[in-house]
Amino acid sequence: MNPARFRRLAPSTLLTAAVLASTLTACSGSGAAGETAVDGPLGTVVRVVDGDTLVINFDGADQTVRLLNVDTPETKHPDKPVECLGPEATQKLESLTPPGTKVGLDFDVERTDKYDRVLAAVFIEDQTLVNAEIARVGLGVPILIEPNKKYYDEVQAAYNEATAQGVGLLDPTAGCTLPAEVDDAVETLAAATDAPVGETGAAVAATAAGILAALTTAKAAREALEAGKDTVRVIAVGADRTAAMVRDLDTQIAKGEQSLAAANTKAATLEEAEAEATAERERVEAEKAAAAEVEAARVAEAARVEAERVQAEAAEAARLEAARIQAEANARAEADRLAAEAAAAAEQERIRNLPPVPEPYIPPAAPYIPPAPPAAQDPYPGYTGPRCYAPGGKTYRPC
Hints:
Blueprint: H1 11-17, E1 25-26, E2 36-37, E3 42-50, E4 53-58, E5 61-67, E6 70-71, H2 86-96, E7 102-106, E8 118-124, H3 130-136, E9 141-142, H4 152-165, H5 178-194, H6 201-227, H7 232-237, H8 239-353, E10 387-389, E11 396-398
Parallel strand pairs: 5-8
Antiparallel strand pairs: 1-2, 3-4, 3-7, 4-5, 6-9, 7-8, 10-11
Helix pairs in contact: 3-4, 5-6, 5-8, 6-8
């Protein structure tokens, strides 16, 4: 934080609240030059434990000191997680009281708490009350555990400044603070509730899912406010503001639940209508598929019949061609037979018309010289070819 924001306590306050209620005076001979000395306990910071606890060496020993009347978010609790802005509170205390810092201590009615930590107000050399500075930047809240109330008013006044400025645990821009979480939950739920519902079952279901998620977050924030009433984060906000945030959450949650119910009803209606439309579409598609199957069967049957027809025509054509070829072969065979019969008849006729075989020639004792036929009796003058003689051997015809 900017050191310019630190507030210096007035001297009168320091006189009544500082160590041993004494004024700070310059150290006498034994101290180093420039050191501040007080009559009460003085110490040196050894280390910072967390935002409201540190180890200081005083009275000859290292002692754990718990700051009076201020409480910061947990960072070292064995049973709690690190709380919102706890590390930042620790860093703030480290910046105010780094190891080696000279501090003055003041106590209240009870010197220690139930954990044996020393309860004290811690002052640094510029008269700053560390307890109040942690509250002034909104990293710690005022607490009053009777009878220890000596510095409660100073811490409360410092915290009022933090409240007015909206810093630290009151900062709505710091993501982990209650104002930030509640604002974010309310805004997210409002956006989800006001989002367009959509006109399809899927769109409406998505809107309903968004509303449900935002409702879950808002209800978690509402439960955190109720369950964490005694935590620093809730105490930091204050009872009035916590009640206001609860009312805002309740209002938005009620609106969100109404919107969710309406979205769920619309989603169910649309999904039912879409299911019916889908069923009708599937029925129509099934009918189309069945019709297509019937048509395919008809086409297949027609193709089969056509194929059979073509096959039958081809077979008939082949049969006719074979019959034609066979008929032609038969005709040729018959012609050959008739030709053969005609040739045989002609041969028989030729044979019948052959002259009788002459008796074996017995040559006479003397060579026989047949008389030359009279020229006037030759019906084929000049013919020298084969001769077919009529019975008796007196006439012939060309053979």
